[in-house]
Amino acid sequence: MKEAVLEALREAAVDRLEGSTTCSCLSMRAIREIATHLGLPCRELAAIGLENGFVPLRYVKNIGTLGLEGQATLLRSKAVVTGSGGIGGQAAELLVRMGFGAVSLIDPDVFDETNLNRQNFACGDVLGMPKVEVVRDRLLEIDQDVEVTAHRLAADRDNLPGLLEGAGVVIDALDNLDDRLLLQEAAAKQGVVMVHGAIAGSSLQVTTIYPGDPGIASFVPPRVGTEKTRGIEVETGNPATTPALAAAIQVQEAVKALLGRESTLRGKMLYLDLEDWTFEFIELSAR
Amino acid sequence: MDIRVKVATILLGKAVPPLELSSFGLEVPVGMDVESLVASLGIPAGLVGSVTVNNRRSPLGRVLAPGDTVAIIPAISGG
Fold first, then answer.
1. Alpha carbon distances (Å) from B77 to A36, A83, A110, A154, A157
2. Nearest to B76 by CA among A272, A209, A45, A187
């Protein structure tokens, strides 16, 4: 079987010069035709191709950074995105374009008009529709071979273990500190790396939390009353730029975690202030 | 004694009275702790998520030393 796959890939591949390297590239159409002919999922065929030196054109601009092996690893990996709002919608798109093979979306809400300023895929014609379903459909327009799962529910202590199953990384795009802490606990128990990101006004923060790390635990004050704990974003709001930037940093961290590359944001919180272009690296410790 | 203070820009307008600069030198009494510094700057304690002294997150009771750099950062949780 493997020889038949490689023979088909060799026949379909087209050489392309990328910088100083000649890549054997595969078009989307070629991958689909071969996969159908051989009865393989397209993602699996693309991964086999990468492992044998064939680059899907979709990823050819990633390869100089990720490498063939790294791109194949992402294709065989699943990322969970908790929250499909400002950060989550942007992160989901970036995960697919980077080449994650499976993306799982979790959010209970529908799009409303206040989302239009910043949330990826929020458009006039999807107002009132569940965010996870809209985001899922848009992701499949970008790449129909990605496995996208949409969970229209709020992540909680009971459902998180199941939702995180099989994931290599979880993007924290939630909107309150209590749920973020629950996510950290669940991710640690499941052995999943969590990339935390939060925004307020012209600022953002990101840290990468491996199981057992202190993470954001020391940041979360005890809950008072029944309202979930939020930050200064209640006053500052959230403009369009900060969720996009936070999501980009988080996805970069997610890729590094999956590829086993060292993260400079492990054990440290990056706080970036876009107003005066200053940043802090806050060393984190247990509460 | 002299210290260096950095305040996140989104906290400047929340201080009473509002602060104008996000980074400045300040003379403070010997023995002043982090909590007193935040209060003396008029920054509402409930908005502060972290205070770092020389890049390390510090408890509010930490006593400041000459030459310290203190950064005051809000709690943020928007997604």
1. 45, 12, 20, 16, 19
2. A272
β-bridge pairing B48-53 and B56-57: antiparallel
Is-contact A12 A37, C-beta < 8 A?
no
Asked if the Cβ–Cβ distance from A175 to B6 is below 8 Å, we say: no
Distance CA A102, CA A164 (A): 12
Average pLDDT value for chain A: 94
Rounded CA gap, A200 and A231, in Å? 8
Nearest to B76 among A172, A205, A282 (CB): A205
> Considering just the CA atoms, what is the radius of gyration of chain A in Å?
20
Question: For A143-199, how does the pLDDT look when each residue is reduced to its tens digit (9 = 90+)?
Answer: 999 999 999 999 999 999 999 999 999 999 999 999 999 999 999 999 999 999 999
Please name every residue paired with A82 in a beta bridge, in sequence order, or none if there are none. A106, A172
A215 at interface of B, judged by CB pairs closer than 8 A: no
Q: Where are the beta strands (DSSP E) in A31-111?
A: 54-56, 78-82, 102-106
Residue ranges, chain A, pLDDT below 70: 221-224, 286-287
Contact assessment for residue A66 and residue A74, using Cβ atoms and an 8 Å cutoff: yes
- pTM score, two decimals? 0.95
Q: Are A117 and A74 in contact (CB under 8 A)?
A: no
